[in-house]
């Protein structure tokens, strides 16, 4: 009977402690103190890979937010479809999204900028074979010219600057729309006369002077004409998500900047890892970073806004959009 008399109170205490512990666990995981998670989608080239490495490998963390990053070839499509609340988006595609997309997006900062840490040689080049008779952009009239994406940022800049600086309309060219890799092969085989090559492929061809010759550096021309490096892509966020999760978006942006710094500080050891997986050499990717292009997560100030508006104008001039987006609506600080 003594056992029964003490058993009931002790059982109650134990039950109370178990319930209390369970309640605390629920509060920790699901309550106000839970750490939010932000999912992002981004491109696969080296700059993005380097920028996000610290987060993806768990080397850079935050006590304010968890960030999951997916690198995908169709990152633009994924972002436009609303499959991710935050991520990278090419500048030209963002211009289209501000007018035609069912998901409202805002640009938080620049992302990939066509200037390296030491030089601003860019990545977008009009290339021919080394022995071709084409020597200036004026010689492109009537030629078959490859472009990596008819509505992409680089293509929009090329065709707009071709008309602005040389008076040549895109209707005077025969455009061939293929990936950078396929364009390089077509150029080498003689299937096209010239090509706009970008990303790592543009740098690869630019450095291979025995095979190819650059007749026009689009990114250098953009700097000359507009005073700032070409912003190839932006860090964007779903507007509704941003409004509902402002602190998580800010924390995710801050963590991405930390990860970008980590990548830059460890590029000597990380470049060989990327080269082993995707080809080329570690020296090549360090050259890209130093002289051509890198991730630059800067807030959009008035000068950058003016250069972005110029890119939007390129897209509008080609009839892809019918009006320029309102800067107060599409540019937001994290």
Give a description of the structure.
- The longest helix has 29 residues, at 2-30.
- This protein starts with a helix and ends with a helix.
- The chain is 50% helix and 17% strand.
- It has 14 helices and twelve strands.
- It is an alpha/beta fold.
- The strands form three sheets. A five-stranded mixed β-sheet has the order 2-1-3-11-4. A five-stranded mixed β-sheet has the order 8-7-9-6-10, sandwiched between helices.
* Rg value: 25 Å
Please state the overall shape, judged from the principal axes of the Cα atoms.
Answer: globular
**What is the strand content?**
15-25%
> Segments where pLDDT lies below 50 for 5+ residues?
1-30
* Secondary-structure content class: alpha/beta
Order of adjacent strands in the largest pleated sheet: 2-1-3-11-4
H/I helix tally: 14
Helix proportion range? 40-55%
Question: What's the number of extended β-strand segments?
Answer: 12
Largest sheet properties: 5 strands, mixed
The rounded distance between the terminal residues' Cα atoms is 67 Å
Layout: helices, strands, pairs:
Layout: H1 2-30, E1 37-42, H2 46-56, E2 66-71, H3 75-80, E3 86-90, H4 91-100, E4 105-110, E5 112-113, E6 125-129, E7 144-147, H5 153-166, E8 174-177, H6 180-189, E9 194-197, H7 199-207, E10 212-217, H8 218-226, E11 233-238, H9 239-244, H10 246-265, H11 267-278, H12 282-292, E12 294-295, H13 302-317, H14 327-330
Parallel strand pairs: 1-2, 1-3, 7-8, 7-9
Antiparallel strand pairs: 3-11, 4-11, 5-12, 6-9, 6-10
Helix pairs in contact: 2-10, 4-13, 5-13, 11-12
């Amino acid at each position: 009977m003594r056992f029964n008399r003490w058993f009931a109170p002790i059982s109650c205490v134990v039950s109370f402690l178990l319930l209390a512990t369970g309640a605390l666990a629920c509060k920790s995981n699901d309550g106000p103190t839970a750490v939010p998670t932000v999912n992002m989608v981004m491109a696969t080239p080296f700059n993005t890979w380097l920028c996000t490495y610290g987060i993806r490998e768990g080397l850079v963390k935050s006590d304010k937010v968890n960030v999951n990053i997916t690198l995908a070839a169709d990152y633009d499509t994924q972002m436009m479809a609303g499959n991710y609340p935050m991520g990278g988006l090419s500048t030209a595609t963002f211009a289209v999204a501000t007018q035609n997309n069912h998901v409202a997006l805002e640009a938080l900062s620049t992302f990939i900028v066509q200037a390296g840490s030491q030089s601003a040689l860019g990545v977008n080049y009009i290339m021919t074979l080394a022995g071709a008779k084409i020597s200036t952009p004026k010689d492109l009239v009537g030629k078959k010219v490859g472009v990596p994406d008819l509505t992409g940022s680089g293509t929009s800049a090329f065709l707009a600057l071709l008309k602005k600086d040389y008076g040549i309309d895109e209707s005077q060219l025969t455009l061939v729309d293929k990936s950078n890799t396929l364009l390089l092969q077509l150029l080498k085989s003689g299937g096209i006369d010239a090509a706009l090559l970008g990303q790592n492929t543009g740098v690869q061809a630019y450095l291979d002077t025995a095979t190819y010759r650059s007749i026009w550096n689009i990114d250098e021309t953009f700097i000359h004409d507009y005073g700032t490096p070409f912003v190839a892509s932006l860090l964007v966020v779903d507007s509704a998500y941003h409004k509902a999760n402002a602190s998580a978006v800010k924390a995710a942006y801050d963590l991405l900047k930390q990860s970008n710094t980590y990548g830059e500080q460890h590029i000597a050891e990380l470049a060989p890892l990327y080269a082993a997986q995707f080809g080329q050499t570690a020296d090549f990717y360090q050259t890209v970073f130093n002289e051509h292009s890198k991730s630059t997560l800067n807030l959009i100030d008035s000068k950058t806004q003016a250069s972005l508006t110029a890119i939007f104008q390129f897209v509008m001039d080609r009839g892809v959009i019918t009006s320029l987006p309102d800067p107060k609506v599409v540019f937001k600080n994290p």
